[in-house]
Structure formats: structure tokens, C-alpha cells
Amino acid sequence: SSWSWTVSVMRGCATWICGALPTVYAHRSGAPPVDFDNNAICSSPPGKPGHDGDFSSGDGSYHIALLDGDQPVCEYDATKTYTVAIFSSGGNVFKGFVLHHNAGSHTVPEGAQQHDGADCVTHSSRAEKAAISIPWTPPASGEVVFTASVVREFSTYFGGGSIATTVVEAGSAVKSECQQVATAYTSMLATSSTTTTTTTTTTTTAGTSDEVDLSGFSCRVEAGEGVEIYSVGLVNNRVKLGVSAPVDGWVAVGAAGESGMVGGDVVVGGASKDGDAVHTGAYKLTSTDLAGVTLYTDSKAMINAEIIKSGGRTYLFFERDLVTDTSTLSMSGSQKMIWAMGSGSTLSYHGSDRAVLDVDFGSCASSVDTTIATKKQVHGALMWISWGVLLPTGAAAAATGGERFKKRGPVWGPRLFKAHRALQSLGFVIALIGIIYALSEFSSDGLHGHGVIGIIIMVFATGLMLSGIFRPHPEPRTKARIAFEKFHKSIGPAMAFMGAINCCTGGWLAQDQESSLNAFSSFMIPAIVTAVAFLIAYVVGKCTGKAPTEEDAQVNVQPNTGGKLDSPDTISI
Fold first, then answer.
1. pLDDT tens across 505-536, in order?
2. In terms of DSSP H, where are the helices of 157-280?
3. Maximum CA pair distance of the chain?
4. N or C end: fewer C-beta atoms under 10 angstroms in the chain?
């Protein structure tokens, strides 16, 4: 077949792509089965982590409480189910843990995993935690001892028997250390409940930003576009945050998700979906469109919110727990946060007025995270090379070649066919890489107009490639051959043009979303030029030249064609 070369190219490219894919390594989180001395971690108390040094002195204010609902108890009823909580009475967070119990059974919750030892639970993520709760079913009778080790930082961890509590069956004498833990938990709970989820709104129409008192914040970071984020130290696992933006409208700030916006949560002040200019609310972010910005009532995500408008800026202040139902913040180390702003009192698309940041409140430092923008540039470059250059040029070569590439004679006909075949094959492979890359990197954000159109175009492009590879021979002219020619010659140019146009819209969307980067304009403008040039070349190719006469064909025969101008193995399509 004349397409054996094309198949070889595609096979070679596929082999290269697969060979170039990086090896994926999965590092196990959670405590290992044994420590460096080969002692079992799942023991009472749990063994020492294989980190530097030894257990830190004391309990680090970490405790274990048995909860009936949200109330700590020291005796259990064998017919009920309880929750075992590891918490800090001093407002400290932790990254890892191992919890051991000598009786009863547990259920592994989100954020934890079963340890290799049957009586132990450990963490499933190194993210900072203010507390962890594990459902537990008690035994029929007897004392139950809970012990834990807690890792605050790599070389700071507590345990070795200092974090423990003992509970007994109902009617037995309770243990004094359990009563002390219950008192600490009740005190912490009472402190947390004294502040309820309220919204206090102040609107200032005059004055300067200097009149807004920011002296209570210990950290102030630049977030880009004139936006500032503020924080103050941790109190009872709660942090006070603030954000200000150079806009008389609304502003939002919060924890980012894995892909930026999606999976995060924010607090919005100064606008609502209903146009309330004094509204503040906590929102989950489940997609990049407005429908995915969902108001929710997690009392840990927004407490004592205040909105102030002064000197052309909008200020939002609020408190939140470090750990909410959706996200976890930290007062030390780098973490991803997001902000957005807009004018008016109705929540709407923010365009490029937003950013993903790497923020470290411990050092009061921040930097704009350009990971997503870079990935968009990679996708844009691949699609521009394919749909912006190679595929339209290959389609124009086919149009110029005319009917079965005989329009330009026995010399240029084969050359145009070979150019068409090479350009379409290479362009298709690069476009396929580009769309697979986009789906792997951006699919969690959902598919929108540009992405949906791109997939439709690629489906047709795949059909065109397959029809070209397995096309019927031109003689005799069967119904299958006629159907192939109609499909290939009508859909092909249309997809080449639509692909170039979709490159234009993709560049425009990316530029709107990432205004600080001008690389997208370098994709968008050439794609427009290519689309126009393709139209001109296609029309000119269709309207100029004439098919050679039979006499011309007899005289201008290429030696390598065997004297057959339209041999299926040379230039016929």
C-alpha cells in the first residue's frame, strides 16, 4: 500500500511517545511496618518513626479522646459506636500519626489508612491536620488502652507512651488520665463554640486604604495585580485571614485544589450570585464555571467575616479553622492558595483577575504559581504546530494537486501527494499528543466549549487518517471509493480550517486567563494568519491549473512510476 510509509511513521512516533513517557513512582505514605531497628510500629505504644533522633519530651499537647457524638467519655457501652479523636489542646497541627488500640475494632476514615498491624490506623497523606477522628466499635467488656505517636515535623514527634488514654466498660471506675483528657477536650470545644458563624459587614464609601487598620496581622504578602493577603498567628487551631484588592466590587481568597481552582474552597466578600453587595460566604469550588461555585455552611470555613470598602479597594477579613471539610491550611511551609476579584455585586467570571500562589505564612513569602499556565503553553504549542501549520498546509497541498493529484502533472503531482501524506501524518501525531496531554492535565476542570470542539475535530481527524490508510483503490471506481473521496475531500478541508480556528479561540481564552504571559498571543496570531492563508491557498489550488492531456501524460512520465500516472502505489488517493 502507498500508505505503508505513513503507517511506519505513525508506529515509530507511537513507540517514541511511549518510550518518552516518564516512569511513575508511587511513594507509600503512612507509617511503615517496622522501625529502623526492625521493631514493630504497630504496638502499644506505637514504635518510633524512622526519623532523626528520638521522641520529643512530653506529649506536645496531643491527646486521645473517646467521643460519644461530640462529647468526650471515659466509659463505653458495648452496644454503641464511638469516635476516637487525636487532637491538640495547644492549637498544634501534625502531619503523621499511628493510633493503636488493644481491643475493639475500627473503621478507616478519609485521611487515614489501615496499618499493616490489625490494631493500628495511620495517615494516608502528609498534609497538616488539626485533628483526626476514627470510628471505633468497643468490645463486650474490659479496659481498652489507646496509644498514639504523632509526627509534627520530620524531626519533631511525640509518643512513646506519653499520648495515651484508657477507657472502661460502663459501670467501672474511670481512669483519672481519661478524665483529664476529657476536660481538655471540653475546654477546647467550649473555646471554639464561643465564636459562631456570623457576618458583620461594614461598607465605607470614602477615605483611603491607610484608614483600614491592618496592625493586627503579623504577615502581609504581595499576591500580584495589587492584591495583598494577610494572616495572623494560630489560636485554637484557627487562623485569621484577610485579603484586599484594588477593586470596588468583590474579592475572594482561599485554599487551592490540586488543579488550581477545582477542589479548593474560598471565602467571597462583596458579591453573591443574587447581586448582594454586602454578602460574605464560604464556597466550595467543584468546577471552573459559575455552577461549580457552591455556597456551603461548614462553620469551620468562615467565622466572623467582615467586608470593608475604602479608597477604591475591597477588604475581606475572616477566621477559619486550619482544617475544613474541603481543605487544609498551614502556618508554616509552602501551600497553594487562590484569589480572585471582580467588579459589581454579582459573582461573575473573573477572567485573568485571579492567581494561584505558593504562600508561606511562616516566612511571609509568596510567589505566583505558573504551573497551569506553563501546561497550557505546552498544549498550545503542540496544537499550533499541528492544526496551525502542518495539517492546513497538507490540506492545501492536496487541493493544489487536484483530482487524484493529476492536476499538476506527473512531476509535481507525486511531490504534492508525498507532501500531503507526510504533513498530515506528522500533524495528526502531534495533534494526538496535544489532546492526550490536555485531557491528562485539564480534564479535572471539566470540558468546556473549546475542549469539546477540539475533541470533535480530533474524532473526524482520526476518521480521515483511517480512511486514508485503508482507502479503496481508484480503479475500478466502486461505491466505497466514491464514498471515500466525498468524505476525505469534503471533511478534510473543513477540519483543517476548523482546527486552525480552534487554535485561535484557544489562544484567546488562554490569554484572557493568563494575561501576565504573552506567549499565547504568539500562538493565536499565527493561527489566524494560517487559517486565512489556508483559505486562500485552497481556493487558488482549486481554481487554477488544468489536468494534463493524455499526450502530456505519455511524454512526461516519471521513471519511478512505471509509466502510470495514476498508479495506486504512486500518487492516486
1. 787 777 666 655 555 556 666 667 766 776 77
2. 176-193
3. 114
4. N
